[in-house]
């Protein structure tokens, strides 16, 4: 006759929770309206740095509000995806956030320096995987990473007969470790699913809050603004 164990279910639940603490999400230590004002100033500064003329509009206002809300409010998402057509402000917003984060000097837990985000082009991730695999492995696990132009990189790279999928492997690892990641892309959700497969598309749905940039390009002489 099979003998069943007597288990203290409530005690076991408490023990499991103690041994598997939830990973803390990064949040900016300020009010949402202050984060919005700071992001707006950083965006304007990024535009000036590129010798362009800043133009405030309702698209930018809504995009910055969405980002400020995510950065200051509780969320299950530990990443963000800025998606839309070419030249409509995604990369500029990512760089503005980097500039703001550098200015704030927010301390990490346990006196481990201050928060900062590294931004890399998706093509460079593939290049690094093939030409400097040790640097690629370190990049995978940085605390905060910005990936610009997702979808422009080769899906696979070959190194001495070995086939790698650099961005897929990087996204998989960052999903598993719940690492802060901001992505810009011109791909639609359907194109992401077709390009990277259901597995990565589903993980991106879980990890990344989406902000859709529905405005047109700003890379014109008639309307020179923030990208």
Structure explained in plain terms:
By secondary structure, the protein is of the alpha/beta class. Helix 7 runs parallel beside helix 8. Mean pLDDT is 90; it is low at 223-227. It has helices at residues 9-19, 32-49, 58-72, 90-104, 122-131, 133-140, 166-177, 189-207, and strands at residues 79-84, 118-121, 144-150, 157-159, 162-164, 180-185, 208-213.
Helix and strand sequence = HHHEHEHHEEEHEHE
For the secondary structure, the number of strands is 7
Portion of residues in beta strands equals 15-25%
Contiguous uncertain segments of 5+ residues: 223-227
Helix content: 40-55%
Overall pLDDT level: 90
Main beta-sheet strand count, sense and barrel state = 5 strands, parallel
Please state the CA-atom Rg, rounded to the nearest Å. 20 Å
> Strand order of the main beta sheet, please?
2-3-6-1-7
| N-to-C CA distance | 72 Å
Secondary-structure-derived class: alpha/beta
- Helical element count? 8
Oligomeric state: single chain
Taken from the alpha-carbon principal axes, the silhouette is globular
